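Trying the structure run again after the queue cleared.
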Amino acid sequence: MITIGITETDTNFKHYLPWIQGGDPDIAALILSYKSPNLDDLGKCHGIVLSGGVDWHPKFYNNPRTDYPRADHFIEERDEFELAVFKYARQYRLPVLAICRGMQLVNIALGGDLIQDLEESGKKNHRRMNGEDGLHQVKVRPGSLLHDIVHREEGMVNSAHHQALGRLAEELCSSASSEDDLAEAVEYKSKKDQGFLLGVQWHPERLDIRKGSPAFSKNIRDAFVRAVREKQESSHHPKNSLQ
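Done. Tokens:
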């Protein structure tokens, strides 16, 4: 039995648990939430999914501006909680799958920053429209972890964000990009002595395979679960929260 911690979001959270469990009775999902907060439950987790959701407060990436276009509201308690979750995962090299806001978390935590609004910066619209995710092509970097997972150099993914990675953290490299040259996936630049980490700007947990590329959903889920099983079998980490 493996336990995967999934950070709670108020936005379409219903998709995450069934997608990551995939009907497998040997996979337990544990909700990690700033509302509890339950950092002590990290000791039960063998892998972490960092979910999507509301914008990060700009103070976490050293930007004083909070009045940018489409700025709605911030949840600083969630920001702080999830930074602690990622810190723990890094400390114990737990496999991490970071989705949309979660990928932005990874970049922020490691010293990068964000483009606050894509359309304001001259990029295309990547937001949901009329209640539906957008769709666009991504190009995958050959030789990357993502390429090893999806076995493709391009594919169609869904899109539901108005922010994106700006300055990339030094430890990260982009492994997929959009047609308007935004980082659509990230991973560690050096894999040595690091746990599995894949960040994707799209939402594989709700990618409609009739419209998008199945490899960019199912393959990602399967590779992450495989990494979690390998971690669980090879080592143990303390059953407590951050020290």
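The chain has one domain: 2-234. Worth checking whether this holds up in the mutant runs.
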